[in-house]
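Key result, reporting period 2: structure in, sequence out.
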């Protein structure tokens, strides 16, 4: 990838991240102190503090958390992004230990292994100077914290699925922000990670079974403009046995969107011709050979 995914973390002191490839094990640099964020909203009453013990350094800290009654689901999008109202739970998804700089999406926070803790201490803690994020988090804070989580996942060489989900969530934050270019960068990184996870990891992955993951990879391909590959993945969902009807329906709907997009682009090749090509590839034991 040519874009530096961590460029926004420079003001935290993580300056030499442009060499960092999230899907390869590598070293990183780290942190300075940045001034606290302040925001006066009564959102405070919709949140509570959860007491968390850091698995890396043992510090006990308060993690800002969203009460279940504090948000409403407004919309679910085709790549599983949820648009919330009142409070946005994504903003509070990353837990960060301010003592050592260890950060992770909360579902993964305690899942760090012993040998990975040393990587955090060496690559993050040694440079981390702390940052006060205040009591209320906003979109920019969420992006920064998701990137700190991704940086931690990268230095501990976490499974591709975790980095992929982290990238997907950053893409969603840029979608909320209306920054299509950065959204695309992170969608592409999410896709790369889910592709790797599909080959190397066992489902469920973040609650997704194999068919759901197949659909998601199709949808991410569609969103980044890889229409032919998207169709391959959607077809697999549509033709597989034992797939939830709703998921099949979603795959059909997204397939139709590609058809429309291709018509708009004035492409000569039809969906039928693409499918014939896919059939050929399948016979040759190409792409489809990974499906069993
Ligand atoms: Zn810690």
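The corresponding designed sequence is given below.
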């Amino acid at each position: 990838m040519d874009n530096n995914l961590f460029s926004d973390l420079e003001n935290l002191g993580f300056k030499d991240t442009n060499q960092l490839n999230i899907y390869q094990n590598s070293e990183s640099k780290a942190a300075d102190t940045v001034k606290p964020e302040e925001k006066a909203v009564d959102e405070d009453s919709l949140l509570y503090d959860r007491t968390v013990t850091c698995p890396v350094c043992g510090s006990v800290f308060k993690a800002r958390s969203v009460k279940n009654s504090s948000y409403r689901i407004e919309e679910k999008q085709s790549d599983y992004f949820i648009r919330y109202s009142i409070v946005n739970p994504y903003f509070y998804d990353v837990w960060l230990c301010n003592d050592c700089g260890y950060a992770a999406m909360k579902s993964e926070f305690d899942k760090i292994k012993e040998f990975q803790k040393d990587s955090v201490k060496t690559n993050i803690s040694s440079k981390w100077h702390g940052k006060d994020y205040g009591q209320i988090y906003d979109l920019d804070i969420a992006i920064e914290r998701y990137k700190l989580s991704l940086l931690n996942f990268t230095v501990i060489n976490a499974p591709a699925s975790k980095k992929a989900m982290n990238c997907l969530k950053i893409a969603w934050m840029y979608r909320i922000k209306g920054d299509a270019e950065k959204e695309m960068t992170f969608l592409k990184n999410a896709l790369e990670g889910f592709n790797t996870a599909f080959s190397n990891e066992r489902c469920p992955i973040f609650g997704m079974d194999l068919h759901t993951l197949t659909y998601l990879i199709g949808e991410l391909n569609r969103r980044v403009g890889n229409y032919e590959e998207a169709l391959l993945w959607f077809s697999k969902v549509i033709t597989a046995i034992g797939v939830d009807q709703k998921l099949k329906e979603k795959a059909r709907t997204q397939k139709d969107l590609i058809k429309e997009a291709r018509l708009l682009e004035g492409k000569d090749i039809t969906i039928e011709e693409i499918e014939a090509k896919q059939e050929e590839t399948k016979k040759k034991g190409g792409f489809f050979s990974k499906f069993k």
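Confidence is low (pLDDT under 50) at residues 26-41, 287-292. The pocket of zinc ion is lined by residues 54, 56-57, 59, 97, 99-100, 102 (CB under 6 Å). This case is discussed further under Risks and Mitigation.
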